[in-house]
UniProtKB/TrEMBL annotation:
PROSITE patterns membership: MFS, SUGAR_TRANSPORT_1
Keyword Transport: yes
Protein name, per record: Metabolite-proton symporter
Domain Major facilitator superfamily (MFS) profile stretches: 19-428
Transmembrane segments: 31-50, 56-80, 92-113, 119-144, 156-178, 190-211, 244-271, 283-302, 309-329, 335-354, 375-396, 402-423
Keyword RNA-binding: no
Species of origin: Bradyrhizobium yuanmingense
Keywords on record: Cell membrane, Membrane, Transmembrane, Transmembrane helix, Transport
UniProt-listed InterPro entries: MFS (IPR011701), MFS_dom (IPR020846), MFS_trans_sf (IPR036259), Sugar_transporter_CS (IPR005829)
UniProt xrefs under Pfam families: MFS_1
Localization of this protein: Cell membrane
Amino acid sequence: MTTATRVSASAERSTTAHVVWASALGTAIEWYDFLIYGTAAALVFNKLFFPSFDPFVGTLAAFSTYAVGFVARPIGGAIIGHYGDRLGRKTMLVATMIAMGLGTFLIGCLPTYDQIGVWAPILLVILRFVQGIGLGGEWSGAVVMVIEHAGNRRGFYGSLVQVGFPVGVAASTGIFALMTKLPEADFLSWGWRVPFLISILLVGVGFIVRLKLAETPHFKEIVERKEVLAQPALEVLRRDWRSFLLAIGITVSEVGLAYLLTVFTVVYATTRLGLPRQVILDAVVYAAIVEFATLPLAGWLSDIFGRKALYLAGGVFSVALAFPLFWFLDTREPALITLALVVTMTLTHALLFGPKAAFMPELFRTQVRYSGASLGANVAAALSGGFSPLIAAALLAWAGSYWAVSVYIVALSVITIVATLLAPETARDSLRS
């Protein structure tokens, strides 16, 4: 190897490392912004924004506004993905951070129902919609940015971006756990606002880091060849529809599990089981910390054994653990609850979410990769992510027991297993252009 070649290789590794770091940091901040809403919906929004309802109905109403963010995500994915495939990955990643940061900060500034009446929940819904638009283009842009820099280790490097999710879960849940130590009056008065307001500082850091990113070589190549498409999002639906449907199918279980494990379990433990908020919040934080290590492991294994092997394993474990999860929660023992969430998060969500950062974009060619990954991930999120806590709460009320929620988890998992079996193995192929 010549000196020039070594220098080039070192520079490439440095660029990849910077892209991974910037993407993971930004994604962690974006997930923090998006997820603190879910925790607030489970703990406080039913009291402050929907106080005229029965407590359970208020919770359903709060989760309905939570779902609005997921309805907005496909819209954001289509718009931001379109411009990400036309103007570049970097530009849109900066834009999504601004949208998310402002939406989150303003939620922390909102007057409550007692102060401005019905305008409080209306403004809450509008700002949640803004959050959804931002996140709709955030995740897909971050993973596309990384895998288009990553060479043959796309599974591992992509999974490092996924670490942003458990970091966001741990940070958002952890700060709410800290705030709940305040006297109840202080928590309901100003304590719940703190997690939203401090996000503006985090977004400032992420914004500066992302401004220094380099555009991906794959996007530069299609620009040089004048192969940038005029309507990439429409092209996904017209020519890449099979990949689009497979992307939705492989995602519905993972995204549903993410919010059932981090949001619905909080409601189930505090309202159904009557446990202190601290018990379940701590368990969620510990599970997220463990996933910090298991996500990169899953991504690395997908480079060795293939994306499909990890996805099939995650789907099968999701079916197997759908009932035992609630058996352990119903013991009301903090140690067993923590163990249940740690094991379930590791063997289900981590095995699916770790390889997803590579698997999803690999299904699409460069000209439509941002749009395809955005639409596939966000349509699935709208179908099973945002509505999962709402559906689970409704199923619990209807059945009077957790079994209906477990059946729902099994149904989502079967869809993912079937989609994975139909999908091509992409781990050993070069990115399509």
